Amino acid sequence: MSRSLPTRRGLQALALVLATSYATILLYQAVAQRQWIDEVNLAEVSRSVIVEAPASRRIISEESPPVTPPVATATMAPYTTNLDDVFISVKTTKHYHHSRLPVIIATWFQFAKNQTWFFTDREDPYFQNQTNGHMIDTKCSSSHNRRALCCKMSVEFDRFLASNRKWFCHFDDDNYVNVPRLLKLLDNYNPREDWYLGKPSIPSPLEIVRQGPEPQRRPQKVKFWFATGGAGFCISRALALKMTPVAGGGKFITVGDKIRLPDDVTMGYIIEYLLKKNLTVVEQFHSHLEPMKFLNKDTFHEQVSFSYSKGSRDEWNILKIDGFDLKDDPKR
């Protein structure tokens, strides 16, 4: 009796295993058949799927590789400078209102009427009307000494800061400014970075002697480059804001008095020496210190500024260019 009990239990266990195996086989066949049917149906559908493209239609067959969307990449667009991004200042004096301003007003001022301001030393209702209110009396001296020049530059700089524009571009009243080319030049530079753009008129950095720091105050040599004001120069707002503690609010005049040098040199001293920001040389700025006749007329359209001057023997330093004769267009 005790011997037959294990035998019966073994047979029951074997039967349970066989039943489980048979059920598993039936379930697998059902699932596999269903999956095979789905795959066949999907393959049949894929043969006739049509995908719309913007300019064509593509048929994707079952042999086509999987379609992967392109990876989106961000490309930084070059900075675009608009006229309203630029504050253009023109330094002049009452002595040159009638001899120099009409030429500017009749030519390049027409391209930037709302962006160009004339900084002078006398109220002038006639030219205030001609420029639509863009004459600014700086209350500075009308002389051409360094302090009078620094006084006007100080007013120019403060007016630019108050304008909230992105670029400060200074020119003299004997400059012709190629306004479209100026904007194209500024497209290459970000006004949120520190930029001092211009052209020196000397072959090496200017070297001056100034008093050293306390307590010894020993004289020390200082070297720096500066952009010639008579050719024009531009300063980004980012750099101008860094200059504000030193040059803003009339302090520019104080710095000029300290080193006893003119306005454009004082500007270079502040930027290159005090702030340690380098001048970026732009060859397309031109002053009356250059012989204009040697400029290649095939490159005139690429230049940012030109100038002119009259020599000691009544010889004009002007562009050599075809067009009107000297009687009609003496300053070219």
TrEMBL record:
GO-annotated cellular components: endomembrane system; membrane
Molecular function per GO: glycosyltransferase activity
Keyword Transport: no
Intracellular or extracellular location(s): Endomembrane system; Membrane
Membrane topology: Single-pass membrane protein; Single-pass type II membrane protein
Main location: membrane
Keywords: Glycosyltransferase, Membrane, Signal-anchor, Transferase, Transmembrane, Transmembrane helix
Domain Fringe-like glycosyltransferase span(s) in chain numbering: 81-332
Entry's family note: Belongs to the glycosyltransferase 31 family.
Protein name: Fringe glycosyltransferase
